[in-house]
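**Folding the chain**
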Amino acid sequence: MSSDAVASKVVPAGRRQGAVPSPLYRAWLARRRRDGLTVAGAQAGLLLAFLLLWEVAPRMHWVNPMLTSYPSAVWAGFRELVAQGDLGWHIIVTLIEVALSFSISMALGAAAAVGLWTWPLAQRVLDPFLVVMNALPKIALVPIFYIWLGPEGSIYAVAVAVAVFITILMLYTGFQQTDPNKLKLARTFGATRVQILRKVVLPGNVHSFVAALKANAGLALVGVIVGEFQASKAGLGYLIIYGSQIFRMDMVMAAIVILGVISLVLYGLIQFVDHRLSRRSRR
């Protein structure tokens, strides 16, 4: 048995009995800390190397600075946007659109996945259509949504269309992979399909929901930006289009960096939720 497996067995027993951690457990913790520091250091090193190369390459004219900008110019562009007083509004508009699109996509996706699991015949009928809609390039639908729903509605429609189908497929696949022994035991005790869903399938697919959250957050953000490219008069997508039209790559890159920060914050929040759920499930 590996030391990780042994340590995982020692931890709960030690906590229940209030025992002093064993040398094996302390060595495992030390190795975990070293691994964490190594990963964090490698990530920081990669980021610094990228920023350094990005700064040096345009200044040395290895690439055209007008096309790529560079970090110091992006910082100057960011300060200019802040000084103009509109940046906060653009960020708030994009965040609201992402939050609403994300919530709608998760709600519709979860409801559809539950419906497909509850009625297997519906899944057999709709499965090819879901696969096709998931594979369809959603940017092709932007003009249609714009005509149907107008500028504001088209942004939400595109974002939901980008995210909802992958959410349905991910959650339904997770439902299908529920432990068959648990399902058989529930049926043995006479549980109905709805009871099995509530007591076995949904509690056993917490990590499927977390995985769908991670995918949905990024896809909703992508969908919102694509919608803003077409229709919006505010938001970070609007800033990117406006900056490219006036050849202000520093403005474009500043908006992209802000989008990266938003993505990182969303990922961190979902990781926090995942960590809390994992701790609760181990109790």
